[in-house]
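Changelog-adjacent note: as of this version, every example in the card shows the full chain rather than a window. The one below runs 511 residues end to end.
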Amino acid sequence: MGAFKRGGREMDERVCELIELVELACAEHDLFSSCTSAPELLMVSGGSDSTAMCLLAAHLARQGRVDPSRYHVLHVDHGLRGEDSANDALFSERLAAQCGFAFHLRRIDVSQRTAQFGGNVESAARHMRYELAEELLDELCEQAGVPAEEGRICVAHTRDDRIETFFMRTIVGTGPGGFASIAFRNGCVVRPLLDASRSQLRDFIEAQAEAGFFEPIIVEGANAGGEFSEGARLGLWREDATNFGSEGFRAFVRNELIPLAKTRNPSLDETLSRTIDAIADENEMLQQQVEAALGAATREDGTFDANSLAELEPPLLRRAIYTLCKRALPVAERIERKHIDAIAENLLRDGFAIDLPGAVRFSNSRGRISLRAIMERNSELEETLVEGVKLAIPGAVELAGGVRIAAWVVAPGSNAAAFARDCSTATRVFLDAQLVSEKASELTISSRRPGETLQPLGMAGATKKLSDLLIDAKVDAMRRDEIPIVRAGDEIVWVATVAPFPFQRRQEDRR
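Full-length structure tokens:
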């Protein structure tokens, strides 16, 4: 590699330092898959950071240290900057070609999504990028014949990004996990450049160009303007004009807040990086304690024991609540401190429920904590059940929302009770025809009534409250009036779609 003098140091020395830095981070944080054929998906925007990541992978491939066929470049065109967005895509495609990597282009309409679902453009763009990346990675893993969890999505976040994120979260408020800033790894997403500075990466790009390993890519567009860096004007990377102002939150932190802080501490990058690493280590230790506590509180039915959680010290309890909520919420949704405080305060209150972002409900039912999706109410079905519907035997009725209930007579054999117990399911039930006919000539389908009881199979003639059965079956409280209750006369013989508990007594129990 040729030597490129800059600031009195040879550039090839800086290249070696960068490679050592990245390899150390990969080893310490277990970033890459042990499967030698697993695909690596490089998220490339065309900016200096992702360009350097792509060139670094190509450098390692030339040295025979990685298999270039494993690497794929994904560029996502957000359609937000018109011609400049198209030119970013063209730059990224040509970069991938120079590196010898397969190129994948995806186009999305971020503006349309934010108009439809709300939120800010930057957040929507980020979530859509990761969704597309995960979909593509699944496809690539399937083609390679390797498990999806072995693939990796490589993102070019740097030490600069980490520090910017720290300041941003300081301003808006966050917990200890937020102060840990950007993680080296989240599942299949890895950030091998997180210990490197943006200036190191730009030095590396220039070194690759000087050594003849990278041919500058001149693309028409705003990068020719005077406000852009020399590297962007020379075609070494692309730049977004919005990064130079202070209107965006991150741009404000990058261009105004951090430079001001560096007037008091010129070594802010190194100092704050050490602080973030320490916070991240402590955060990981606390999270391990929380995971152990959640494991101990988990019940066989998948709910969590409220009393067990309540024994945690307040900081661990808040973190445990946050962990449970984040698992249940869609990725794009945020759990706020007001939700966590409300849950912690009411954790032991039976019947407590709170609706969270993303249509998820946190509830306590008899000391059992659960988080479930809030189902949309079918008001048409509710109205139909309130009025009641007759069901002849044999016969069938169509209810609102595509619900169909039918009845017919079968001859199961001599041991009818055993047949009913063995073959009944939540959507199919076998009843004693003689016993039903004694109660009524036809069945009635309607909604629940206050204080009703029934005799489920397996309870030896004991009764159970209908409300308790619906709670045990984890039927959302908002949907309980949508459950078709099938009766013979005034007696419940089946709660459709919930559980197999027909009105059925053993022969010897009849009187």
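Structural remarks: The chain has three domains: 8-160+189-243, 298-373, 379-509.
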